[in-house]
Amino acid sequence: MSLLENKVALITGAGQGLGAAYARLLADNGAAVVINDIGKNTEGQYLAEVLAQSIQATGGKAVAHTGDISTAEGGKSLLKTALECFGSADILINNAGILRDKSFLKLTEEDWDSVLTVNLKGMFNVAQPVFAWMKENGGGVIVNTASTSGLIGNFGQLNYAAAKAGVLGLSNVMAIEGEKSGIRVWTLAPAATSALTAPLMNDEQRQLLDPKHVAETVLYMVSNLSGNRTGHCLFASGQSIRELKFVSADGIRGPGENPEIDAQSIAAAEDKIFLDAPTLTIMDFAK
């Protein structure tokens, strides 16, 4: 029996790249997939429709959704499409995102609003109705896409980093609120070749960062292979998979150990307050 037999998966931003890789792999493993994307190819065809037809042609179950999920109505219509076509909504992968990279002082209000609207508000618009349906129907699995940019920062991506850091907070709360209803929530920080990055890479790099590698991680997340795990954030590429999480140093405490914590006592206890681990950069994750 396939890992996702009789499951229905909703995937946003799935017309190409990572989202398309997820859709194909989940369909290959028995899921019916609802492919959301508003993008079109050079011939004016919706990417979501082209991919859905391709999956259908190989015996898979797929349908396209071309609504704009940056609106609440668009998010609700995605769930409606899944229920009308397949009768369920067992898996949600929030993958849709855009970039408007500029250094902080060159960033415009429009750049800020567009990235936050698609990457964070759009996720809320989709997740809320699906979460509500899952709560009333025995649970499900949700994967929200963050980024190492949001966790550690990256030059020229202030708006994108702010949105993706928000995704981590959103996911953490969703995991807490969904656990008693059988809703498992993951955060994913992927590294993969995209239409933007492929021209800058050599063949070896493109192979190492092929989206299919990240898709396997997503399959693990949304299937029974991951058991009851929830509330975790995974980094995934063709080279490594690792959990990302905040950790705390021992620190110093008030009354008892340090009756008076002032600026001088903080300076004197820096070895206890600051972590000894090296600070990570985006390049560290590429290794």
How would you describe this protein?
With 287 residues, the chain is α/β, with parallel strands linked by helices. It has 2 domains: 8-246, Rossmann fold, CATH 3.40.50; 248-287, no CATH class. 43% of the residues lie in helices and 14% in strands. The protein contains 11 helices and 8 strands. It has helices at 17-28, 47-57, 72-86, 109-136, 148-152, 158-178, 203-208, 211-222, 263-268, 270-273, 282-285; strands spanning 8-11, 32-36, 61-65, 91-94, 140-145, 183-190, 233-236, 241-243. The protein has an 8-stranded mixed beta sheet with strand order 3-2-1-4-5-6-7-8, with helices on both faces. Strand 4 (91-94), helix 4 and strand 5 (140-145) form a beta-alpha-beta unit. Helix 1 packs across helix 8 (211-222) and helix 4 packs parallel to helix 6. The longest helix has 28 residues, at 109-136. The protein is globular, with a radius of gyration of 21 Å. It starts with 7 loop residues before the first strand and ends with a helix. This is SDR family NAD(P)-dependent oxidoreductase. Keywords: Oxidoreductase. It comes from Pseudomaricurvus hydrocarbonicus. It holds the Pfam family adh_short. Belongs to the short-chain dehydrogenases/reductases (SDR) family.
What is the fold-level CATH name, i.e. the topology of the largest domain? Rossmann fold
Q: What's the helix-strand series?
A: EHEHEHEHEHHEHHEEHHH
Q: State the end-to-end distance.
A: 36 Å
Q: Please state the second-level CATH architecture of the largest domain.
A: 3-Layer(aba) Sandwich
Number of helices: 11
CATH superfamily of the largest domain: NAD(P)-binding Rossmann-like Domain
**Cross-sheet strand order for the largest sheet:** 3-2-1-4-5-6-7-8
Low-pLDDT residue intervals, each spanning 5 or more residues = none
Task: Give the number of domains.
Answer: 2
What is the CA-atom radius of gyration, in angstroms? 21 Å
Strand content: 5-15%
Structural class: alpha/beta
Main sheet attributes: strand count, strand direction, barrel closure: 8 strands, mixed
Strand elements, count: 8
Write down the overall mean pLDDT.
92
The CATH class of the largest domain is Alpha Beta
Helix content: 40-55%
Overall geometry comes to globular
Pfam families: adh_short (PF00106)
Protein name: SDR family NAD(P)-dependent oxidoreductase
Domain Ketoreductase: 7-204
Keywords: Oxidoreductase
